[in-house]
Amino acid sequence: MTRTNPLASLLDHRRSVAPPGYSRWLIPPAALAVHLSIGQVYAFSVFRNPLVERFDTSLTAIGVIFSIAIVMLGLSAAFGGTWVERNGPRKAMFVAGLCWSGGFAVAALGVATGQLWLVYLGYGFLGGIGLGIGYISPVSTLIKWFPDRPGLATGIAIMGFGGGALIASPLSAELLARYADAPADAIVPAFLTLGTVYFVVMMMGAFTVRVPPAGWRPERERSAAARSEESPAARADAAPQAPDLPGVPVRRAVRTPQFWLLWTVLFCNVTAGIGILEQASPMVQEFFTGVGPAEAAGYVGFLSLCNMLGRILWSSTSDVIGRKRVYIGYLGLGGLLYLLIAVAGTGSVVLFVALTGVILSFYGGGFATVPAYLKDLFGTFNVGAIHGRLLTAWSLAGIAGPMVVNVIADVQLAAGRDGAALYGLSLYVMVGVMAVGFCANMLIRPLPDQARDRAPGPERAVERD
Questions:
Q1: Backbone dihedral angles phi then psi of residue 455, each to the nearest 5 degrees
Q2: Which of 98-107, 151-160, 280-289, 309-318 has the highest mean pLDDT?
Q3: How confident is the model at residue 88, as a pLDDT?
Q4: Residue 181: which residues within 8 A CB-CB, separation 6 or more?
Q5: I need a surface site. Which of 38, 70, 144, 213 has the fewest CB within 10 A?
């Protein structure tokens, strides 16, 4: 007689189907538990100087850890998207928790033994896989539970990724202060503590999440369908419902112009936003002589808050005005704001802070809105896998944005310039980047109905590799 592994059985996709009466409003908190945990990556800079001291190396060598994590986020999301769709959110969130928390453990071992490559392997490579799988794991489930409000649902969850640093930054600083007199000596217990806490929180999310049963629809849609069935004329005119259109298979989706236009849109929005985010502290100090390190740290916290709030505000707005229109705002208005900063940004610190805050809210909103945009274009059932492919734009933008700003600043510095002149040309470049994204967004058109896979049933919902 074959013995079944209890854990494997518990993680099985069929065991995660919601029972009758399950509230769909339990799904956003489950997703939020994962995204708040992996959002710690935006607070990695808290460990940067202690790691430099511990390994007696350069900031660049330590910065590679963050870069590896972001690159692996995009790659694991791209190559793991179909696996996530096939195995369901519970198993995916469980694996994400193991990788993310295990990354902290391996990194702690590297710090304890003085092996920097183990930190690269742990936090960067293994943790980065946890980031990618964890980031996409709840997305398609949220859209299936909230077909009537996909922007709101994904915005709530992805808001956690932007806001995770608001919790992780002071928590990490407190752990470094409590465990040892010198922060460099407190890295190992701090990493182990964070890994343990995040594992528990992510497991709570993993074992709470459920997928809707086949044919499930929100109460409002069921009520509307029941009313339409009372009228023969309405029934005859009714359009096919979503279950009859499982969506576009992944491999077909990535061959469409719509996918690559949206990839360009995301790349441009992220490149422009992350360029400011990565250089926020030195940039504001160079622009305004009266701003010191303490004020710059407060400014970085403000940008993180704008990043977080933009994810829920603008993604919810997209449910009302549509995805294309909200991206017109992100890229069109965002480009104008960059131009205004370049022309008049040095005149007032209040104006500079306000304009960059709005831009960072667009940056966050772009992340939260793109899953719903994909759902509109390609259907519901493959959106997680397609979203994973699309996040390769984030990996590339995470390199391109900071590189543009840093290289131009180095060139200007070598030419004898200083202050705001270091970043003026970068701002104009970002205006051009936004313009490219704006044009790509305007070129996006809905797919024809024949491009969709009309075969009903879950066996056709996810393309097999």
A1: -70, 120
A2: 98-107
A3: 84
A4: none
A5: 213
Nearest of 160, 253, 169, 239 to residue 202 by alpha carbon: 160
N- to C-terminal Cα separation, the chain: 31
Pick the closest to residue 73 from 139, 32, 124, 119 (CA basis): 124
Tens digit of pLDDT for each residue in 272-311?
888 777 667 677 777 887 777 667 767 877 888 888 888 8
Taking Cα atoms as reference points, which of 128, 109, 131, 127 lies closest to residue 118? Answer: 109
Do 111 and 51 touch, CB atoms closer than 8 A? yes
Which two structure tokens, joined as six digits, stand for 366?
Answer: 């772009």
Residues in the chain: 465
Alpha-helical regions (H) of 48-113: 48-55, 59-113
d(CA 248, CA 447): 9
Could you tell me where the DSSP H helices lie in 114-146? 116-119, 127-136, 139-145
Mean pLDDT in the chain?
82
What is the C-alpha to C-alpha distance for residues 214 and 228, in angstroms, rounded to an integer? 21
Residues 6+ away with beta carbon under 8 Å from 176: 46, 47, 50, 183, 186, 187, 190
The DSSP annotation for 273-334 comes to: HHHHHHTHHHHHHHH-TT--HHHHHHHHHHHHHHHHHHHHHHHHHHHHH-HHHHHHIIIIIH
List phi, psi (to 5°) of 286.
Answer: -75, -35
Distances (CA, A) of 460 to 86, 375, 452, 453: 11, 17, 11, 8
Distance CA 101, CA 62 (A): 20
Dihedral of alpha carbons 156, 159, 163, 164, sign? positive
Write a three-state SS string for 245-275. Answer: CCECCHHHHCCCHHHHHHHHHHHHHHHHHHH
160 Cβ partners below 8 Å, 6+ apart?
31, 32, 33, 34, 35, 36, 39
Question: Residue 44 is which amino acid?
Answer: F
